[in-house]
């Protein structure tokens, strides 16, 4: 779509289009529209969008970032849950013939099928300005449903971005850090202050790029058990692993088994989940599995 210049990305044009359609922000959808062209440029650069790429955008809003994506990519499918935004999107995107709008909750869309139809099953790039309240379910849904992805570049709450890239021993390290890092390499491309949005959120945001792995960096014999152990390890951060795992009956891991496994791994009985790396969690899972099979 070379030749078309994005018209949105500044406050005046955003206000004009919102007034034209008498749009009312819906708190339930966590709507905060970007009004800074420099940030939009940073997102496109961070996502490394080229004319070969097919992009899935989640939550296009009034089409601000969609214009930038359409100008750079081969094609864009934008998934918007709010019906009130459809006439606005038809207006702001009318000059772009490589954009399709789907009015649906992204959690209900079969993105694997979409990638197959739009890009022949080849990996797509996901770009989004995500509502804070639903960031984690959307990102984990993309990974856990094995949507063919080359990267996910999203605007999220700054605190969430910090958690995604945190390492062992830090206060931000937890189940989200490990889950994201199992599927992708996180990189914070930019911090974005509240004044770059309309309306202004109460907290800062960050653009984070998740470069997906072809294969996870660790191998666990039972992926479901790995994530169950990780979640149990951080449910109550103050508990030791021995206590934390034994208090989740469905895991079927006794204190005795955990004690044996920790000894085998050369870890102290008092160790907490926040001290373990992803590799150590994978090893712990395999060792627990071996004991459970007897």
Query: How would a crystallographer describe the biggest sheet?
Result: 7 strands, mixed
Note the gap between the termini. Answer: 61 Å
| Secondary-structure class | alpha/beta
The total of helices stands at: 12
The coarse silhouette is elongated
What is the strand content?
Answer: 15-25%
Query: Helix-strand pattern, N to C?
Result: HEHEHEHEHEHEHHEEEHHHH
- Quick check: average pLDDT? 93
Per CATH, the architecture of the largest domain is 3-Layer(aba) Sandwich
Placed side by side, the strands forming the largest sheet appear as: 4-3-2-5-6-9-7
Give the low-confidence spans. Answer: none
Strand runs, count? 9
Helix content: 25-40%
Describe this structure in words.
The protein has 294 residues and is of the alpha/beta class. It has two domains: 11-212, Vaccinia Virus protein VP39 (Rossmann fold), CATH 3.40.50.150; 223-292, rRNA adenine dimethylase, C-terminal domain (Helicase, Ruva Protein, domain 3, Orthogonal Bundle), CATH 1.10.8. Helix content is 40%, strand content 18%. It has twelve helices and nine strands. It has helices spanning 11-20, 37-47, 64-72, 86-92, 111-119, 135-144, 158-165, 175-183, 223-235, 241-246, 255-264, 278-292, and strands spanning 33-34, 54-58, 75-80, 99-103, 124-129, 149-157, 184-192, 197-198, 205-212. The longest helix is centred in the last third of the chain and has 15 residues, at 278-292. The radius of gyration is 21 Å and the shape is elongated. The protein starts with 10 loop residues before the first helix and ends with a helix.
